[in-house]
Amino acid sequence: MSNKNTPPAPDPFLERTREVLTDPAFAGNPLLEPYRELADRYAHMVRTFMKTVHISDSYQLRLKELNEVLDEAMRTDFLTGLMNRRAFFDRIKAELSRSRRHKRPLCILMGDIDSFKAVNDRYGHDIGDKVLQETARTFSSALRTEDLKVRWGGEEFLALLPETDAAGAAAAAEKLRSIIEETAFDVGGYSIRVTISIGLAEEWDEDPEAAIRAADQALLEAKRKGRNKVMVAPRTVS
Amino acid sequence: MKGGPIVNDLVIAGSVSSPAVRLDAKRGSMELSGESYPQNAFDFFAPIMDWAHQFLRERPDPLLLELRLSYLNTSSTKCVIDLLDLLENAYRIGRSVRVTWYCDKENDRAREAAEEFREDVTFPFEIRLTGHVS
Questions:
Q1: Are A4 and B74 an interchain contact pair (Cβ–Cβ within 8 Å)?
Q2: Residues contacting residue B100 through CB under 8 Å, at least 6 positions apart
Q3: Does the annotation count A202 as an active-site position?
Q4: Which of A6, A51, A151, B79 has the smallest CB count inside 10 Å?
Q5: CB pairs under 8 A between A and B
Q6: How do the domains of chain B map onto residue ranges?
Q7: pLDDT for the residue A8
Q8: ipTM at complex level
Q9: CATH classification code of B10-130
Q10: How far is B95 from chain A (nearest CA, A)?
């Protein structure tokens, strides 16, 4: 979108002025000299103005583009490319009020890689990071496009499943759990298997934090029961 | 005074919002580098314009303007156009002037802007794509 060699905009007033100034009838009239000068300066100023505006637009466009990049970076987890917590909290209210308005169920699913510290201890953090990336990829592809997938923290992942009741979410969580259990990640020359524990909670009142806490409790329960399990939080809507 | 440069060197340290300026009378060079969005660009550029005027008035030597400006606000843009106008007028009466405009090869918008600055200019004006500018 370059403005290369932008032709000057037609300016009938300036054209008319120039016509008068070059009319042979007035040739040699010394009074016209300052008007010629004025017409030239006017044309030059208009040109400078347009040029300044166009150049300024280029810089503004650049700032706009950089803003978009920053905005995207601010909402994305750098390691896994999933949504980060900040982006999730920006979305959750809208998702919540939509499910309320349409009286549709909504579930939250919280997953945590089992004994992840052992992976880091054994293979080092670089490999550990790659395992996180692979897990995030699996997490992402096992769920639906419309589900929000978030890297919650270290080895913790959260998903928000719209239009899904506890039974549907439990099925999705079980599918995710078994895919991860059955997949060997090829990273850094190693074939690494991990398992994931998942807690889920269905629908809640105005407080999204309550559902996250409930899912978290269910996750702890799954860990207590020996890991590599899906647990559903008891329904606690008041 | 005779023989020595009357027009003095002018150096202004750069800040977050204003470019570093190095105007070298002996070399006949003006260098501006950084981002330019000072509180009052017209005030900021006034001594630079004055220096260029004085140099062209007092010295017969060629003048080179080297710009490494990654961002200019609207009034700085106007000031740079004015500076280029000044050089253009000097060139048209036979002075040797040229501009080298460095821009980040990753930044298409900066290159577009540089091309627009070059419009209407008849003296040598080179746009050099480099790595990160300033």
A1: no
A2: B64, B65, B66, B67, B126, B128
A3: no
A4: A6
A5: 55
A6: 10-130
A7: 66
A8: 0.88
A9: 3.30.750.24
A10: 21
